[in-house]
Amino acid sequence: MSRIELRAVTKQIGQKTVLRDVNLKIEQGQFVGIIGPNGSGKTTLLHTISGVEQIESGEINIDDRAVSSYRRRELARKLAVLQQDGIPNIAYPVEDVIEMGRFPFLDWLGRDHSPDIREVMDRIMTRLDLTSLAGRPVDELSGGQRQRVALGKVMAQQPQVLLLDEPTTYLDIRYQLQFMELVSEWQKDENLTVVAVMHDLNLASMYCDRLVVLQEGRIAAEGTPHEILTPDTLHSVFEVRSALAEHPDSGVPQIMLRRKEQL
Ligand SMILES: Nc1ncnc2c1ncn2[C@@H]1O[C@H](COP(=O)(O)OP(=O)(O)OP(=O)(O)O)[C@@H](O)[C@H]1O
After folding, report:
1. ipTM, interface predicted TM-score of the complex
2. Which of 129, 175, 244, 249 is the least buried, fewest Cβ under 10 Å from its Cβ?
3. What range defines the domain where residue 44 resides?
4. How far is the centre of ligand 1, averaged over its atoms, from the C-alpha of 194 (Å)?
5. Do 107 and 56 share a structural domain?
6. Residue 217 CB–ligand 1 contact under 6 Å
7. Are residues 52 and 113 in the same domain?
8. pLDDT for residue 2
9. Is 38 in the pocket of ligand 1 (CB under 6 A)?
10. Cβ of residue 15 lying under 6 Å from some atom of ligand 1
């Protein structure tokens, strides 16, 4: 059984075919990176998996059931989405914003009956090093801290699948690494399935088990970082020249871009 399965998915936006005949299976516990040039359909693919965007033809199943057949709360208990700028710049305290992630579990009076809710919240605050910031308004935090709060909010949702849309775009390298480490730890502890749209191919290589390359709405290639991140593939997909090095800790490929030949 695949946790997520796309069969012959085609998506049209206006006159444009944005996804073409996409077939993809993602198993429970995998960390999958979606990579590809600007406009290749990565975000649209994530939106179709999350049920936000309807598809023209094909099937998208989560746990062998069409994503379109889930009620909103039911889907939110399985699947959470985190965007580039995960939470708006609002004056709500950190802890309240994280608790908003509990919405799929609230009854009609807004009460959370989960017996271990305090423990869940404390664990999240500690793990994300947010305890000392619990009462601080979110709009007073740095971008890196705010993205940690956004991660806390989706953790509070206790999903089995996490969809990330370029989550490290606005972060400096320290916070990029910190964010990816936190997601990776959570993924391993809970056997979470992660599908992440990523522009930074070196980070993608360090964290993803598998990479899916989108090009003009089609899957151009998929495989391990070793299989995908080759100078030939990078040239045909991104039109860049590159050389590869091995990461000194894990041996995964790391890309060095080459400049245009100097005349
Ligand atoms: N609301 C929309 N109206 C019209 N065209 C759209 C809309 N949303 C997306 N598109 C088009 O669909 C294509 C795929 O967009 P999408 O955002 O999925 O690509 P992407 O690979 O995530 O791009 P990027 O890397 O730039 O974020 C693009 O050509 C885009 O212009």
Report:
1. 0.95
2. 249
3. 1-78+159-224
4. 21
5. no
6. no
7. no
8. 53
9. yes
10. no
